[in-house]
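TA notes, week 10

Several of you asked for a full example with nothing omitted. So below is the full record: structure tokens for the whole chain, then the designed sequence directly under it. When grading your own attempts, check the secondary structure regions first.
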């Protein structure tokens, strides 16, 4: 029982990985790096930038500072720009007309494309690149590179093969750099519907899906109340697994369904105060997840 609850609590924190890590004072690692164009004539220099970004407690927030330079002249910038998020990957077109940065998180911009002046043309979220049904099927996305004509950004959608050691390509999606349009964008099957969840005021819905299931979380400020549900995919259907709530004091209640083969689902409840498990019980008198 404890394992089930712990997995859910971990999943809730992963839903807003970047924001949560920053608010806890544990920002993602931001190390300077440089990315050259294929010709080697241009180079994007990416460095941490914490000058203007502070959380409510005055702690530094790990943004990024970009400088596009001609190779060998790092002191003379073609353009400079800043970003709220520190990217994990970057690509530079040979003519400098496009710079691509990728920030692989569950929320916010996953890919941002800038023009020759460093201005953002458009940002794409993960949902623009890969559908929830694909993620439930174990698929993931990654940047492959620019096409030879440097008109498109190529995105590979893949999943682990039967051996579990190699990736099996599901689709190759292209993003047209000029207008940041996803060619052959993911299609959601007509019979798929995301479960409905009404988020309380001052919170927003975060959606996370992978081969383990689906999690929907209503979250606002990191220290504020939260509410969410998780679902497991069984025989093509999404089944409610548990329901999570955290009040303004930080106390947590998890109501969940304990399922065993050949037996009806049993209602269970776990209560945490100050991060410690203080109560756990199962039975018909436990209110089921709604």
């Amino acid at each position: 029982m404890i394992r089930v609850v712990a997995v859910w609590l971990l999943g809730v924190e992963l839903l807003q990985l970047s924001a949560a890590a920053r608010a806890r004072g544990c920002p993602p690692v931001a190390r300077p790096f440089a990315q050259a164009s294929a010709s080697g004539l241009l180079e994007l220099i990416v460095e941490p930038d914490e000058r203007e970004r502070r959380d409510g407690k005055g702690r530094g927030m790990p943004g990024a500072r970009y400088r596009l330079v001609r190779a060998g002249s790092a002191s003379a910038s073609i353009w400079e720009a800043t970003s709220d998020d520190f990217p994990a990957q970057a690509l530079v077109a040979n003519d400098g007309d496009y710079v691509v940065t990728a920030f692989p998180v569950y929320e916010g911009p996953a890919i941002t494309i800038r023009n020759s002046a460093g201005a953002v043309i458009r940002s794409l979220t993960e949902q623009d690149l890969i559908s929830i049904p694909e993620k439930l099927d174990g698929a993931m996305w990654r940047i492959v590179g620019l096409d030879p004509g440097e008109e498109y950004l190529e995105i590979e959608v893949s999943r682990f093969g039967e051996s579990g050691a190699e990736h099996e390509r599901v689709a190759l999606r292209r993003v047209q750099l000029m207008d940041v349009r996803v060619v052959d964008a993911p299609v959601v099957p007509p019979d798929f519907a995301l479960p409905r969840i009404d988020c309380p005021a001052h919170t927003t819905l975060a959606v996370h899906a992978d081969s383990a299931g689906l999690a929907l979380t209503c979250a606002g400020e990191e220290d504020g109340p939260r509410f969410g549900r998780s679902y497991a995919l069984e025989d093509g259907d999404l089944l409610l697994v548990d329901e999570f709530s955290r009040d303004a004091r930080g106390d947590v209640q998890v109501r969940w369904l304990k399922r065993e083969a050949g037996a009806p689902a049993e209602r269970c409840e776990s209560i945490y105060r100050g991060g410690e498990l203080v109560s756990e019980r199962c039975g018909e008198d436990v209110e089921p997840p709604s």
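DSSP finds four helices and 19 strands in the chain. Use that as a sanity check on your answer.
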